[in-house]
Specification:
Order of helices and strands: EEHHHHH
Shape: elongated
Distance between the termini: 93 Å
Number of helices: 5
Radius of gyration: 22 Å
Largest sheet: 2 strands, antiparallel
Length: 142
């Protein structure tokens, strides 16, 4: 017997079968696990990707500490686990606390990316200073 029960697509509102995995109107995947995640935050989390384990501790997602054992597989391990954190990051952060709004959530997540750029700039400045200092020391004759 065929199932004739329908529901509305959470993305476009089109009428689709209850057991549909993908909307036939808008093409969006219907994931029952992500229904609590607003559409405005269903995107890649660059903060979780770039500052993975630090971001994870601050969002109470200690699974991000798996980054360290992943480093045992050079390049591939840290990159693969960072990509995983990027895709799962918004769901984890959204569930980690009660957010006032999706706008506030997105602003906080953007601040993580800003922090990464600040740390990157400071690292480059420190590296350049170190190179300059060693170049000066190396040019001094004893």
């Amino acid at each position: 017997m065929e199932n004739t029960e329908n529901k509305n697509c959470p993305f476009c509102g089109g009428e689709i079968p209850v057991d549909a995995k993908k909307c036939k109107f808008c093409g969006e995947w219907i994931n029952k696990d992500d229904n609590s995640l607003p559409k405005e935050i269903q995107h890649f989390n660059w903060g979780a990707f770039l500052l993975n384990w630090i971001w994870g501790i601050m969002n109470k997602k200690y699974i991000t500490l798996l980054y360290f054992p992943a480093c045992l597989l050079p390049i591939i391990g840290p990159l693969a686990i960072s990509i995983w954190f990027g895709f799962a990051g918004n769901k984890w952060a959204w569930e980690s606390q009660n957010w006032d709004s999706t706008e506030r959530f997105n602003e906080v997540q953007k601040n993580w990316v800003r922090l990464w750029f600040i740390l990157l700039a400071l690292g480059i400045i420190l590296a350049l200073k170190t190179v300059i200092i060693f170049a000066i020391i190396g040019s001094i004759e004893v």
